[in-house]
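User: I'll paste a sequence; please echo it back and then give the predicted structure.

Assistant: Echoing your sequence first, then the prediction.
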Amino acid sequence: MPWKETCAMDERCLMIADYRKEELSIAELSRRYGISRRTCYKWIERYEAEGFGGLEDRSHAPHDCPHRVSEATAAAVVAVRIAHPTWGPKKVQAWLDEHKPGRPWPALSTIGELFDGAGLTVSRKRKRRVPASAPFHSCVAPNDTWTVDFKGWFRTADGRRCDPLTLSDAYSRYLLRCQAVDRPDGVSVWPIFDAAFREFGLPRAMRSDNGSPFASTAAGGLSRLSVRLIKAGIVPERIAPGKPQQNGRHERFHLTLKRETADPPAANRRAQQRRFDAFRTLYNEERPHEALKQTPPSRHYRPSPRRYSGRLREPDYPDDFLIRRVRSNGEIKWRGEFVFVSQVLAGEPVGCEQTDDGIWTLHFGPIKLGLIDHRGRLYVPSRSRGDGSERTANLQAPRTQNVLPIIPV
């Protein structure tokens, strides 16, 4: 005959039933059910106090946890999250340490659990990201490089188009400008640059993508806006075409800007600009930045010692350079012939440097425009393909005697 299988609760009930018969002593009950007398007394006491419900297993959790987060602490953590819905546990903890010191704030995992409990966590699908390159290897101090880009236009609630231009310091992430422009062109952008230069001084370089108005298909990739930057004493830098990760810091910032200010958009452009202004103050002065060890950008930025007077000066060239002034049609005169360079440079001086093999290199300030061969033909390298190589390309001119051939790579 097989053994009867009973659960612990059944055994306790049977023991209590035998106890109520008053036929067995405590010692005999203990031996019958294979428990100690102390355990027997425990279940009898629970039965007499609570009935059969007292025979159920109880939680072993402590009645009081000394490490439990207090209601006041939890409320303070959740309040910061509500005020800044896009901030994660790291930024919330850093902000609390900075603005409310002297209190032991919870660990990051605990803060995340508080967000979950308050229903403030939004799960997002993970995306596979391409590893970003490091184009800022020479950016070791504030104002070494500024980065600029348009966030991407959207419409405010009244249906009007809004084009935000953002300008930031690559080293400190300090947001210098965040402003909606009338049009995404050089005419609208330059006054913003001019105001930033007057307030913060001049950077050594300005990094942008290859789009208008920052670049063009002209010689050297120069646009009228980049020509003005050179005349202000700034070197224009451009990422490789199709390589936004080379300006990854600025691209990632735009995601934060959208979440904080344009999701959803404001009622009109004026209200949207007020959001941009408030965000810029918060981003620079309060918002912890993970790349800056959870400190705000304002602690790492200082204005440039290169002050800006507002004057634009023509580039200086070494004494051994030949200087040619670009005509209104984009041509220069070279050994009795006319060579088309770029209408973007109309009225500007370009420098010609002779190499050892008799080829002349054409420059505008720090930018190399192309090569003039023995027959007076100009070869202009096209934009980089992103793999470190370059391709020479035809330069289309409105009229010129010197057709630019394509050199095989």
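The longest strand covers residues 161-169. The chain is about 30% helix and 15% strand.
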